[in-house]
Amino acid sequence: MPRPYNDAELIAVLLSREVRNDEISACGAQSMIPAAALLLAWATHAPDAEVMILASPFTPFPTSRQFHYLAQRGDLGLFFVSGVQIDRRGNYNLHLLGDDHERPEVRFPGGYGGGMIYYAARRTVLFRTEHTLRTFVERVDFISAAGQTPPDVLRRGHPTKVVTPIATLAFDKDAGLLRLASVHPPHSLAEVVERTGFDLGAHPAAEATAEPSEAELEVLRGEVRARMIETGTYPEWARTHLGAAA
Amino acid sequence: MGVPYVPVLGLLGSDLLKGRKDMQVLPDPFDPAHKTVVVKALRPEVALFHGLKADRAGNVHFGYESDNVILAEASRRVLVTVEEVVDALSEEERARTFLPGILVDAVADARFGAHPAGCPDAYPVDDEHMAWYAAQSLDDAAFADYLRQTVFEAPTHDAYVQRFVPEGWGQSGQRPLQVAGS
Predict the structure, then answer these.
(1) What pLDDT, in 10s, does the model give residues B2-50?
(2) Do B15 and A149 make contact, defined as CB atoms within 8 angstroms?
(3) Are A154 and B34 contacting, i.e. CB atoms less than 8 angstroms apart?
(4) What is the CATH code for A7-241?
(5) Ordered structural domains, chain B, with CATH
(6) Nearest residue of B to residue A59 by CA position?
């Protein structure tokens, strides 16, 4: 039986649960799912959270450098970011595909501060709408932001989780590795292992993810969707993804 | 800022530093147990901007605040095109989203100078033109054709505007442009 929610809704709900009421949480430009997640957290469990959706009406700063400086000061609690590829060591790639960095097969727009924010935000939760062998790789083709830290370097925070349509991975800071945290029903552990290009340290008794509740979905499809459309925060995306068929 | 380099948090362990002579790792002089990336200052020869209005003294009013001022400060020469040149900017126009004339070397009147990108408070991004641009960018031959049509066969700004800016562009009824941050 298909799930009574689509992948975007699932990821938005799971991300929203990461937002804390006493922190500043943010996402960058072209971040539709995290934008929905931040507004959902606001409308549910974190009404007093400071929320920043860059390049939208929900940003307090007229310039991006003010956001970057806030992060560098250690005031950013949570950041949401995605990567074209994500690897076992928590590195993500937003730059290019191919072995030769001078002559890439595909070139992407890059990270715009991501390599700094990954060190500066207290927690970074990654997400990816595709969980496949080409996205979850042993080693990314280009490290846009590093999961591991060289010795003697100041780092304020780390990646903590990766959320995909089929599973949540958790970053083990001491080992510097991503490991399986939970599997989203109705997917199986075997399927997650098969669709991941690295060893997840998967345990046969892996937990099932707590699915989006009816209450979470109702707020996401009602209040959050309306707010995104009203405020011009990815209105087209909100119309076509929130409340859309699974 | 006028300083030779600035420290930046993070970046270490990434491939961003590879082959970059303008980014180095140094011990923090005030806390030698920690290392920091330092980045060489950029000093562009020329910075180009498009704004809403400029006056005869070279003061420029952008429709939005951005990192333009810091870029203008860093650059040796600053050239600005604007939607409209006026005798003097108003108090309000000078108060916000403002680039003072002392940083500006030259201003040119160029209505629709941002097209096919948008100019906040004047007109939005031309999505149709952008889609065409994106499609033409897929290979060298198609891109050469785009350049032929929009640049080489439109040798003046007026010729470009006449051919590529839709009639009535920027008049009411168009959705506002999102800016700020990134």
Answers:
(1) 899 999 999 999 999 998 999 999 999 999 899 999 999 999 999 999 9
(2) no
(3) yes
(4) 3.40.1080.10
(5) 5-40 (no CATH), 43-110 (3.40.1080.10), 120-174 (no CATH)
(6) B181
Q: Would you say A155 and A122 are in contact if contact means Cβ atoms under 8 Å apart?
A: no
| Res B162: pLDDT | 95
Contact of B9 with chain A, judged by CB distance below 8 Å, is answered with: yes
Rg (C-alpha) for chain B, rounded Å, is: 20
At residue B176, the pLDDT reads 44
CB–CB of A146 and B8 under 8 A? no
ipTM: 0.89
CA separation for the pair B113, B60 (Å, rounded)? 14
Contacts of A210 (CB under 8 A, 6+ apart): none
Residue boundaries of the structural domains of chain A: 7-241
Interchain pair A120, B9: CB under 8 A: yes
- Taking only the tens place, the pLDDT of each residue in A31-55 is 999 999 999 999 999 999 999 998 8
Q: Do A62 and B16 touch (CB under 8 A)?
A: no
Q: Which of residues 44-83 of B touch A (CB under 8 A)?
A: 64-67, 70
